[in-house]
Amino acid sequence: MNGIINILKPPGMTSHDVVSFLRKRLNIKKIGHTGTLDPGAAGVLPICIGKATKIVEYITSQDKTYICEVTFGKVTDTFDKYGKIIEEYNNDFELEYNELKKVTDEFVGEIEQTPPTYSAIKINGQRAYELARRGESFAIPSRKVYIYSIDILKVYQKSALLKIHCSKGTYIRSLCNDLGKKVGYGAYMSFLLRTQSGKFTIDNSVLLDDITIENIKKIMLTIDDVLEYPIIKLNENQTKKFLNGAFLEMNLEDKYYRIYSNNETFLGIGIIQKNRLKPDKILI
């Protein structure tokens, strides 16, 4: 059994919980998730089965879209509603669309972002949230992420609903916290729904309870279907060389490609660098 399931993760489960549930229900060992969702968040969570676990890194690297609610006036230690309140803005205020739009526009493009202390980031081999729960002091290095767009869907008196299109590795909790700092009232993330991850959207996602051993093959997507790379078809001689790890001369743009044999069999992922195609991941 090899393929990918587009799961609609419910709030209250960790991404690992989803994997464990499916491992037991489908009686399979080789299974993994792509792109962790916080336990309190819901939304698109692609799950890879069998040989598809070899492409987790490629799916995880794709862009994401979220709908989130950011609540202003308070700051929590986790940057979301589940944390302890550590700051509170006591003066009365009311959000205005134009004010918020001016601030959100400043975060569109490449930004420097520091992940939350309570996150799955590893610090010297240990998860940051484990160190934080033990009260240990540590620093998480900032990193560059890309925000393609922030759309304001609705503004309330002290909160706003946002649609965010971003690169991999973006922490929406951190973005909400940074927005709060910029506005001057403080803020935390009070709701999060991932609506898209690469080619996977919430419209074609599947509920966990709807998955059975009997219908899994109808639900599961093939490995080559979910990759968003252009296609290269090889002749018989080129196919043999590619499978043996040889480089092939090709005058094409430097990027990843889906590679097919002369008989239309999907072979794996190749990468072209300086007019040479080399195997990056053999999947046959």
UniProtKB/TrEMBL annotation:
EC number: 5.4.99.25
Pfam families, A to Z: TruB-C_2, TruB_C_2, TruB_N
NCBIfam families cross-referenced by the UniProt entry: TruB
Domain tRNA pseudouridylate synthase B C-terminal per the UniProt entry, residue ranges: 173-212
Keywords associated with the record: Isomerase, tRNA processing
Limits of the Pseudouridine synthase II N-terminal domain: 23-172
InterPro entries: PsdUridine_synth_cat_dom_sf (IPR020103), PsdUridine_synth_N (IPR002501), tRNA_psdUridine_synth_TruB (IPR014780), tRNA_sdUridine_synth_fam1_C (IPR015240), TruB_C (IPR032819)
Any one Gene Ontology molecular-function term assigned to this protein's record: RNA binding
Taxonomic lineage from the root: Bacteria, Bacillati, Bacillota, Clostridia, Eubacteriales
Root EC class: isomerase
Reaction equation(s) it catalyzes: uridine(55) in tRNA = pseudouridine(55) in tRNA
Active site per the UniProt annotation: D38 (nucleophile)
Similarity section: Belongs to the pseudouridine synthase TruB family. Type 1 subfamily.
Role of this protein: Responsible for synthesis of pseudouridine from uracil-55 in the psi GC loop of transfer RNAs.
Residues covered by the tRNA pseudouridine synthase II TruB subfamily 1 C-terminal domain: 230-280
One GO BP: mRNA pseudouridine synthesis
Entry keyword tRNA processing: yes
Protein name (Swiss-Prot/TrEMBL): tRNA pseudouridine synthase B
